[in-house]
Amino acid sequence: MFESARLPQKMDKKTFRKLEPELREALLSAQLEVIEKKPFSTIIVVDGLDGAGKGEAVARLYGWMDARHLICNAYGDPMDEARMRPRLWRFWRDLPAKGQTAVVFGSWYQKALRDRIYDKIDDDSFEHELGKIRRFEEMLANEGVLLLKFWFMLPREDQERRLKKIDKKHAARHVLADWAALKNHEKASEVGEKIIVETSRGHAPWFVIPSQDPEFRDAALAQTLAAAMRLKLEDGEAASVAAPPAVGGLTRQTAVDAIDLTAKLKKSDYEKKRTDLQDRLSSISDTKAFSKKGLILVFQGNDAAGKGGAIRRVIRPLDPRIYKVHPISAPTDEEKARPYLWRFWRRVPRQGHIAIFDRSWYERVLVERVEGFAGHDDWLRAYNEINEFEEELTNSDYIVCKFWLAISAEEQLRRFKAREEIAYKQHKITDEDWRNRLKWDQYAVAAGDMVDRTSTHFAPWTLVSSEDKRHARVEVLQTICDRLETEL
Fold it and tell me: Fewer CB near the last or first residue (10 Å), C or N of the chain?
């Protein structure tokens, strides 16, 4: 998960210096208005991997904001005073007043996080602890607190490089160093991702900050904070999953943005590879092992990216009696009268069969998010609901393969025009397609968040360059065959 945060997000020093005055102005302006009007208090939870520069980023905030109205609360292991009281007591004691902003290191997440990393508690106990935290944060939000949670992400190789630069004297000051040691990087990342997915809510969102580059890291933190404070001042709402680029035009590259669209496949190579893979898929689907599994294929992507063509190449070698293609459009009145996932649960195939979704449950965090058909809290909680749905499927002997087919805006325009000119393709182009194209950037952000929040070890996303249709079709077939052979 959070593939985008692992990309080398960078900002050169010249760009940072140019952006810095606008960031400072936006931050200070929002903070001073909060100080004057006292409409709410702000709590900034800072967490993540040791060596990611959390302290450095917060120090920069102190230099940009009015430090007289900032409070820094750092928590380690509870001392006698706290041990003799309920666990949340010390966090209650230190809550900021309206008009104030508190930065929290070592928050209410730390005990559950550390205990799970070191296997002192099992998954059920961990879930129970997260449930208590969710209720605590919901109560804070109901009392008008602006709660923003930042997870500083750092790839293992970067963490190792930075930790080598920290001497023992300096490391002793890091209250999180004991659990975030390099040897626990993988487990800490895994547990951190679970925390983020399961406790990110509209009233208490997590923001994942790529931390390889200090300038990008600090600018992203400042921009997100300024945008969130301004949004709550103006609308009374918390911030969304990805802070709106309202300050300085800072943008991040998502995993979807990073797809290499130059990949191509010669026609002669395509014919052979496609035929070989289709034969391979046909053979696998006839095995006894396959009859004990269910296969679910999910196709999402840019409009005109070739989902239909890819699906046709997948089903061509299959027995029509074992698969069904489900084209997903706007929900019917019957479907609207039930919980969102109902219409997908009822399409789950029996074992030995295949369900192919041309668009899917991910429309809630794509179309419904961008077009405003789903409320902010609805699409934000959908990430966790979707992950739980897919985990339930995999635990019940289903294999879930998810494909995002990507093309450039220029290629999409070319294909749209071609559809208008070819009679048998005109039904594929609608006014809605042209309207969606006007929101290309919004859909790109939504797609990036979707991949980050729902690419799990049990149901990973495969990001496919579809600029060349032959390459895309072969990659889809290859991925399906590889997954089946690995998991059967």
Answer: C
pLDDT at 334: 94
Give 42's strand partners.
101, 146
Per-residue pLDDT, 176: 44
Q: Which pLDDT score is estimated for 80?
A: 85
Domain limits of the chain?
Answer: 3-235, 267-487
| Predicted local confidence at residue 58, as pLDDT | 94
Specify the CATH number of the domain 3-235. Answer: 3.40.50.300
State residue 291's pLDDT score: 96
CATH architecture of the domain with range 267-487: 3-Layer(aba) Sandwich (3.40)
Residue 96 DSSP class? P
HEC-encoded secondary structure of 21-56: HHHHHHHHHHHHHHHHHCCCCEEEEEEECCCCCHHH
| CB-based burial label for 314 (10 Å; 0-12, 13-18, 19+) | buried
Regions of the chain where pLDDT drops below 70: 166-182, 236-251, 423-428
Helix (H) or strand (E) holding 326: strand 323-327
Secondary structure (DSSP) of 383-399: HHHHHHHHHHHHHTTEE
The whole-model pTM stands at 0.79
Fold match between domain 3-235 and domain 267-487:
yes
